[in-house]
Please model this.
Amino acid sequence: MNDAPEERLLGDYRLKELVAESAISRTWLAEQLSVSRLVLVDELREDQSGQKDVFLADVRAKAAVDQPLIGSVYEAVAGPGPGPCYYAHELLPGITLAMREKTKRRLAPARLVDLLRRVADAHLQHEVLGQATSSLGLEAVHQDEHGVVRLENLAVAGPRTADQSMRDIVHLGNALVPLVAADQPGATRMLTVCAWMRGEGLEAPLTWEQVRDFCMQIEHQLADSTSSPSATRAVIPARKKQSIALIALATAVVAVGIVVLAGRMRPPALPAPPRASLPDAVTVAAGDYPTPDGSEESLPAFRISANEVTIGEFAGFLEILDTLAKSGRERTFDPADQAPGKTSHEPADWPAQLAAANANGVWRNLAVTLDCPVTGVDWWDAAAYAEWKKARLPTQEEWFAALNLEGRKPAAIPPGPWAPVTSQTLDRTPAGLLGMAGSVCEWTAKPAPNPANPLGEKLWVLIGGSYLKPGTDALTREWTADRSLRRPDLGFRVVFDAE
Model:
């Protein structure tokens, strides 16, 4: 790395070291002066002003990425004419897998399979949103000393093509092999997944969804083996070791055959689970409560729904709207400032979502029932439903106050996957609130400033963890300027006045 010219500034950024250079840009380690943090700044080279539009198109693509695992874009600056053109983005913690591979520092299979699952989750979101990406290599994957995984932002301008996922899966299937600690539990299974990623023994390489699912299976298997009291204590007599090894090998071959065959079959319809009795709303007494920003706020008493609004509950709302439409009153529950052009409160892909839920089937590769959270709703849909229920959306302060009831640390609540509301839901606060740390993230009632940019405009707050964003939990917040935003991991819950 090379030092930057002494005291050279780009806006709010003091350039410290040149860390990379491409045909059209330079990447600097820099200090953002206003908040005293280290960042990376990518600057368009002076002799490449003709590439400004290309450079900025890629920056816009990166800025559109909304995934906690992926590095954030902080700011982009494009002066008129030949003026400076650059953008600042997150300096990711930890070391890259490329650095680890170069120094021959292998990873335990359990940690590596967790890492690969998170990479798969991030790229599944790229697929869902149609975001094009440049090639994924080991240098783009960072892991810190606590095992936290972050990915460089590889989004680029243009449509996503079908071969981009295959390109990255095959590459990782080769590149991860030297990182596997072959003498530790799970190594054979991890290497087998890598072989499948390369397409060995299959008609085609795995998809990101299959990669994620296989990683989850291995994680569960390793967790089960370590929790078994006899797993590490069994002593195998010398004469039996060879026969046991042969049996294990035969079992593994059969298991591989079953998995490959299952991968080529359409998932069967799931048996109908019993309908859940949805839990009652939770009462939050009047008092002073901590806020997400570290202050304290006095709140009147209120009740908050224990679960996110379900597909079945939202279907009931739409049925009422259909009835009202017959007399021209379908806008009865619309928020006062709703855009005139918005004429429906049907969630995104609603016919397919509802049909799958009614059949206890599969929608977007998710097992769904009427007791799963409704998703694909924008702020207007959520607010209209709340009005129908004689309720409202929670403020982030109310949501956070409910989260903190009965004293358990919010970060300790285990994030839950996509799942229907049941009495067995693990993602549960001591007060009985479900899905705060996982399931889907949720709309709140009003805009608020982002603490990372306190002088910026107030934006609408999404709160809580998401099944599509591993690493998120009950303390997660996102900000958006777009109340029309709809996502497959975005739902809501409602708040009632105290009885």
